[in-house]
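> example.struct
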């Protein structure tokens, strides 16, 4: 239950960074610059803060009232929920007014999935066009708290754009490692425009991530990938915002795409903390969808009894990385996800599923989301493709309440979208990139342009046809 203290009292933070390995559990001070447990190399997470508000109703009202406040901190959809964050009131918070993203009813997507209804939580409506901003605001704030001067991440594109923007805002040097030739133009353009130093590595994301972890050991560099537990803290507030938008009715299912598995980890942590505080009475089933060619997590799920891992230690070698991940959804072309243990635990505790979908399924689902007038980038569409598959398999019932989290804006990968609609989307088996030669997609929901003579009558004739 919530501890009793008055609203005006300065909250006592009392949080630590804690190793997630049950047999280790070592705690570290919040200001220690560690990204994994120095004792056992386990992942770290921030312990839940003790919330100092008298009742759950007071807390809900306080959060809602901040939506109409003019204070910068209240206008952020992350810092609005600061009772759940491990920062002191006077922390130099870095915000681009992230969060407060829309929750859309999506009847066409619902029909496509054979559901009565389906909602889309569009994280692409964040300042840099992806869900990364909700975690970047807290991670870059923490960079200032620990006195960092240079922040660094490895990225498939969105983390890069987000970090570059927040670093620029906070006046920090920013370095980005990306896999050469494997990041969409839009994401690269954003990152360059925000002034980051972009280093292209002649390899895949997993190698960039390995290098980033090595570089993070240098005192000069502050690592801001989702292995950094302060990223997860910001991202977990999406769970709170979603519940608020649903008037605190817990949906049956929340479905996210899975790459490095920070997002599913964060949502799982958010829902669990709300449950522990008594703000919700049950957990939604949290399901993760991967692309078939980059699906080590889905493969693992199909091979184990997930119930065993709700709280028991998870062996390090349980997940077999995919050495050559392939998918046109380049955001989730990841073979060795860093946060897989945390995500596995979150899915296990919620009773959800982890599955993969094909390139064709992702492409068609993306077009359907576009037809709603909403749109998203390819990786985000894996959710709707996955929901369709889970409904067909009887895992999701037709009348259940389902939320898909769309992670990136429709303009994040316009090359992909144009090629789909022009029937020119192909997959190169080896690189997982578009290719003019191999494996054509069927453009099931295409909408290609029409050439027409620049005369009124000619246009009318085309329109009538
Ligand atoms: N969707 C989008 C649009 C993404 O950019 C990512 C990850 C994911 C889903 C997967 O989320 O990694 O938390 O499981 N993008 C990272 C990046 C890897 O570098 O931008 P995850």
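> example.seq
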């Amino acid at each position: 239950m919530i501890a009793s203290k008055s609203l005006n009292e300065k909250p006592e933070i009392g949080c630590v960074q804690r190793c997630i390995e049950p047999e280790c559990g070592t705690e570290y001070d919040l200001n220690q610059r560690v990204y994994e447990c120095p004792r056992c190399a386990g992942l770290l997470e921030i312990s839940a803060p003790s919330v100092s508000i008298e009742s759950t109703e007071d807390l809900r009202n306080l959060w809602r009232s901040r939506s109409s406040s003019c204070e910068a901190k209240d206008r952020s959809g992350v810092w609005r929920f600061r009772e759940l964050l491990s920062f002191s009131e006077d922390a130099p918070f870095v915000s681009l007014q992230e969060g407060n993203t829309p929750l859309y009813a999506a009847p066409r997507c619902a029909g496509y999935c054979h559901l009565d209804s389906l909602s889309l939580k569009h994280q692409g409506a964040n300042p840099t066009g992806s869900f990364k901003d909700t975690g970047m605001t807290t991670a870059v704030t923490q960079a200032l708290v620990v006195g960092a001067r240079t922040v660094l991440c490895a990225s498939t594109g969105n983390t890069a754009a987000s970090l570059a923007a927040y670093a620029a805002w906070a006046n920090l040097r920013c370095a980005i490692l990306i896999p050469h030739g494997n990041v969409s133009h839009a994401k690269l353009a954003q990152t360059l425009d925000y002034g980051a130093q972009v280093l292209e590595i002649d390899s895949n994301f997993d190698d960039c991530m390995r290098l980033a972890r090595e570089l993070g050991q240098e005192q000069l560099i502050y690592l801001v990938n989702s292995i950094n537990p302060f990223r997860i803290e910001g991202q977990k507030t999406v769970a709170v915002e979603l519940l608020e938008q649903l008037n605190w009715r817990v949906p049956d299912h929340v479905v996210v795409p899975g790459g490095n598995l920070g997002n599913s980890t964060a949502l799982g942590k958010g829902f669990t903390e709300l449950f522990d505080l008594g703000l919700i009475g049950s957990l939604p089933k949290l399901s993760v969808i991967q692309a078939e060619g980059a699906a080590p997590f889905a493969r693992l799920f199909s091979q184990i009894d997930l119930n065993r891992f709700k709280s028991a230690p998870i062996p390090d070698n349980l997940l077999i990385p995919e050495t050559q991940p392939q998918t046109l959804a380049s955001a989730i072309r990841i073979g060795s996800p860093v946060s897989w243990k945390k995500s596995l635990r979150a899915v296990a505790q919620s009773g959800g599923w982890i599955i993969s979908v094909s390139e064709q399924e992702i492409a068609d689902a993306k077009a359907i989301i576009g037809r709603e007038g909403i749109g998203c980038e390819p990786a985000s569409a894996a959710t709707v493709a996955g929901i369709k598959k889970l409904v067909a398999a009887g895992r999701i019932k037709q009348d259940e309440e389902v939320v898909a989290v769309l992670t990136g804006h429709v303009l994040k990968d316009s090359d992909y979208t144009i090629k789909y609609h022009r029937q020119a989307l192909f997959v190169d088996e080896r690189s997982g990139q578009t290719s003019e030669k191999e494996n054509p997609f069927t453009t099931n929901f295409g909408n290609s342009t029409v050439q027409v003579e620049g005369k009124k009558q000619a246009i009318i004739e085309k329109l009538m046809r």
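> remarks
The CA atoms of residues 35 and 218 lie 12 Å apart.
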